[in-house]
Amino acid sequence: MLQMLSEETIPEEGVDQYFSNLYRIVCVAEKPAAHEDDAELVRTTYVVDWEQLVHLLEDYDDFGEDIVEVTPVRGDEACSLRRVAASPQLARA
C-alpha cells in the first residue's frame, strides 16, 4: 500500500533540520541459520545521516533487507552518536 497522507510546503530555513538529523532505520531480513537449512528472520537497526539515507533509498533494490521503520534521531542522542562515529577507536566496515 502506498497512500499520500499529506503534502506541505517547507520553508527554506526549515530544510536544514533534515540534513542535521541522523536517522534510525530498522530492517527485517531472512538470514541463513547457523545450524539448520532454514533461514531465520533477523531484525537489524542502523543509524545513518541524511546523505546515506538518500543513497540507501536510491539503491534500495540492492540493499537486501526490508526497511520497516525510519525514525529521526535529534538533539543529545544525535550528538552522542556523531561523537561515537567520529571516534578513532571505532572500527569501520
Descriptors for this entry?
93 residues, alpha+beta, three-stranded antiparallel beta sheet, 3 strands, 32% helix, flat
Topology:
Blueprint: H1 16-20, E1 22-32, E2 39-49, H2 50-58, H3 60-63, E3 66-73, H4 75-86
Antiparallel strand pairs: 1-2, 1-3
Short summary of the structure?
The chain is an alpha+beta fold and 93 residues long.
**Contiguous helical run count:** 4
**How many individual β-strands?**
3
Strand arrangement in the largest pleated sheet: 2-1-3
Order of H and E elements: HEEHHEH
Low-pLDDT parts are none
Strand content: 25-35%
Alpha-beta content class: alpha+beta
Over the alpha carbons, how many angstroms does the gyration radius reach?
17 Å
Mean pLDDT, to the nearest integer, reads 84
Helix content: 25-40%
Principal-axis shape: flat
Distance between the termini: 34 Å
Largest sheet: 3 strands, antiparallel
Word description of this protein:
With 93 residues, the protein is an alpha+beta fold. Helix content is 32%, strand content 32%. It contains 4 helices and 3 strands. It has helices at 16-20, 50-58, 60-63, 75-86; strands at residues 22-32, 39-49, 66-73. The protein has a 3-stranded antiparallel beta sheet with strand order 2-1-3. The longest helix is centred in the C-terminal third of the chain and has 12 residues, at 75-86. It starts with 15 loop residues before the first helix and ends in a 7-residue tail after the last helix. The model has no long low-confidence stretch (mean pLDDT 84).
